[in-house]
Structures are given as C-alpha cells and as structure tokens.
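Backbone-to-sequence.
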C-alpha cells in the first residue's frame, strides 16, 4: 500500500489527538476509536493516514520529540553563562514533567514497547542518537562561546545528562508530587551547573 501524505491539516489533527490520548492513557488503554473521536475524524480517515496504533505511537513520539528539541534549543540560545544554561535546562525538564508531560509519558511508554515493536525501537534509537548529537553540539558551542568549561568529554557529558533526565522522568512519573518539590529542582540545577563548569 502506498504511503499517504502526512502534511495536511487532518493528519496533524490526528497526530495531535494521538499524542494526547497515548500520553494520558498509555498505549494499551488508548483505542483507535478514542483517538479518532478526539481528532474529530472517522476511524476510516484515521487509517487513511496511519496504518495502525503502533505507527501512531511511533509518530506521536517523533512529534513530541520535536517539541522537546525546541525547548532544548531555546535553553541554549538564551544562555550567556553556565548559570543561565543550568537554569534553562532545569526549566526545560520542569516543563517536560509538569506543564506538558507528553514527551515524558510517551518516552516511558515506548521503552516498554521497543522490546516488541521494531518500528518503535527504531524511532527511539533515532530520537536518542539525535538528542545526544544535539546536546554535544550545544555544549561544544557553549564552550566555544566561553560560557561553560566542563572537565568531562562533551560526548560523555551529553550522554550522562540525557540519561539523568530519563532517570528523573521515571521518578517523577511514579511520584508526581516530587514535581512540586523546590528542593529537588534546586538540586537538579546545582548538579547541572557543577557539571557544566563556569568559564574561566
């Protein structure tokens, strides 16, 4: 079957609805009928654009990843010091677990799915490869600008910071009350700042 174009308004509406439903209910509980109803389309039209729920999950993760990358790029672009960057990255994490946890929820859901779905596993791999590369490049550019001076290799630091965010996601998902604990966020920001190092 020939793949359908994905760029029109209906496809975007379906994908937005899939992000909401799959993030809120999880893959197993969310149904195609619910996603179609949320998007205001028929199941037939949904399947015109997306083969099945597995494909919707992979595309939803991709879309949520794009939103995450926008926050990430904004944090680096606005920073003029290691303190700025640490604060910006901390705000980004707070957004991803608090005001808009779509990326966090979909990522955690896809970790389980990746064991059974080659499609989701490939999307997860692509996301993490891109995220590590973007993080390392952002750190390199910040170091070149003279705003950070990390003692660790940038590739390794990027991987560690990304992995740390995954660990935080898991804890916030299991204990949502931690999202409102200011002491947690203060520790996160101070830890990031220490790893980045102040420019000399």
């Amino acid at each position: 079957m020939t793949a359908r174009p994905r760029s029109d308004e209906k496809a975007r509406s379906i994908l937005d609805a899939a992000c909401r439903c799959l993030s809120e209910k999880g893959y197993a509980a969310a149904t195609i009928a619910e996603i179609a109803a949320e998007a205001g389309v028929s199941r037939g039209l949904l399947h015109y654009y997306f083969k099945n729920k597995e494909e919707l999950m992979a595309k939803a993760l991709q879309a949520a990843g794009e939103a995450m990358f926008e926050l990430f790029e904004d944090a680096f672009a606005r920073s003029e010091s290691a303190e700025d960057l640490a604060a910006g990255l901390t705000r980004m994490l707070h957004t991803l677990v608090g005001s808009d946890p779509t990326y966090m929820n979909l990522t955690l859901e896809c970790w389980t799915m990746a064991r059974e779905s080659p499609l989701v596993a490939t999307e997860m791999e692509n996301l993490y490869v891109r995220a590590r590369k973007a993080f390392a490049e952002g750190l390199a550019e910040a170091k070149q600008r003279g705003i950070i001076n990390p003692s660790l290799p940038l590739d390794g630091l990027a991987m560690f910071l990304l992995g740390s965010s995954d660990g935080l996601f898991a804890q916030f998902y299991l204990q949502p009350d931690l999202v409102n604990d200011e002491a947690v966020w203060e520790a996160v920001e101070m830890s990031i700042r220490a790893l980045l190092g102040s420019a000399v």
